[in-house]
Design goal:
globular, disordered N terminus, mainly alpha
C-alpha cells in the first residue's frame, strides 16, 4: 500500500511539473512547493537583519522603483515560464563588500549593494537580474537545495513539520552552490529574457568581462564564483546566444545607471 501511494504521489508530481511548456522537471517538488519554501525562507531572511540588512523599501523608493522597472521588463518579455506563478519580489541587501546576488525558490530576489555599485550599466544589471531570475524560473535553486539538504527535510518544511530548519537554510542561501550546467543555462536564459527588450541582451557578459579585466578569473576565490561556478567560454557563450537569438537591443544606459548608483546608501 505504501509503495502504491508513493507511486501515485510521484506520478502526480510529474504531471504537475510537466503541465507548462518548457518546464524543467524537479523531482518531488511542485510549483506550489517552490512558492511555499521560498516564502518561508524569505520570511526567515527578514528576521535576520544582522545577516541580511535589507534596505527599507519605503525610504529607498527610487532604488526599488529602478530595480522593479527592470524586473517588469524581463517578466513582460514573454520568456519567463513562471511569470504569474512566482513572487518575483526584490530586496536590496546592504553589503558593499559582497559582490553577489541570489534568488530563492518561488522567485524572491536578493541583490547586494556591492554588486550594484560594481556594475557599470543598466544592461549589466538587467543581465545579472535575468541570470538570478533564471535560477528560479528554471528551478535550479530547488534542485540545488534538494541536493544539499535532502528532499525529506525540505518537504517537511513545506508541510510545516520542521520549521526550525528554515533558519539554517536562510543563513545558507548566499553560500548555496549552483552547478556549472545550471550557470550555463542561467546565462543562456538571461539573454533570452532580455532579447525582446531594449537592453543589450548580452548584458551579463559585460559583468564577466569587467571581472576578468579586474583580474578576477573564473574559478578564483571570489565569493561570486564560489557559488556561481564558471562554465567554459562563458562570455563567448553569452554573446553567441545573443547572435543566435537575433537580439537587436543596443542600449547601454551608462548615465542613467550612474544616477541610480548615486541613490544607493
Amino acid at each position: 500500500m505504501r509503495i502504491k501511494l508513493s507511486l501515485i504521489l510521484l506520478i502526480g508530481v510529474i504531471s504537475f511539473n510537466s503541465c507548462k511548456k518548457d518546464s524543467p522537471f524537479v523531482p518531488f517538488f511542485s510549483i506550489s512547493d517552490d512558492r511555499k519554501l521560498g516564502a518561508q525562507v524569505s520570511a526567515e531572511i527578514a528576521n535576520k537583519p544582522s545577516e541580511y540588512p535589507i534596505l527599507d523599501s519605503a525610504t529607498n523608493r527610487s532604488v526599488y522603483a529602478y530595480l522593479y522597472a527592470i524586473r517588469n521588463e524581463i517578466l513582460n518579455s514573454g520568456k519567463v515560464v513562471y511569470k504569474d506563478d512566482f513572487s518575483w519580489r526584490l530586496r536590496v541587501v546592504r553589503g558593499d563588500t559582497t559582490l553577489n546576488a541570489f534568488c530563492t525558490p518561488g522567485g524572491y530576489i536578493y541583490v547586494y549593494t556591492g554588486i550594484l555599485k560594481y556594475l557599470d550599466s543598466k544592461d549589466q544589471l538587467a543581465g545579472v537580474l535575468g541570470h538570478e531570475m533564471a535560477h528560479a524560473d528554471r528551478r535550479h535553486t530547488s534542485r540545488s537545495m534538494q541536493s544539499q539538504y535532502g528532499v525529506e527535510l525540505l518537504l517537511n518544511i513545506v508541510l510545516g513539520k520542521d520549521l526550525a530548519q528554515v533558519s539554517q537554510i536562510a543563513s545558507g542561501m548566499l553560500q548555496l552552490k549552483n552547478s556549472r550546467e545550471h550557470e550555463k543555462e542561467a546565462d543562456e536564459y538571461s539573454v533570452k529574457y532580455l532579447c525582446p527588450t531594449p537592453y543589450n541582451a548580452a548584458g551579463a557578459a559585460g559583468f564577466f568581462t569587467k571581472l576578468e579585466a579586474s583580474g578576477i578569473q573564473c574559478g578564483g576565490i571570489q565569493q561570486f564564483f564560489s557559488t556561481h561556478p564558471c562554465p567554459d567560454n562563458r562570455i563567448a557563450n553569452i554573446t553567441t546566444t545573443k547572435t543566435t537569438e537575433g537580439c537587436t537591443g543596443i542600449g547601454t544606459f551608462d548615465v542613467d545607471y550612474a544616477n541610480f548608483k548615486a541613490l544607493l546608501p
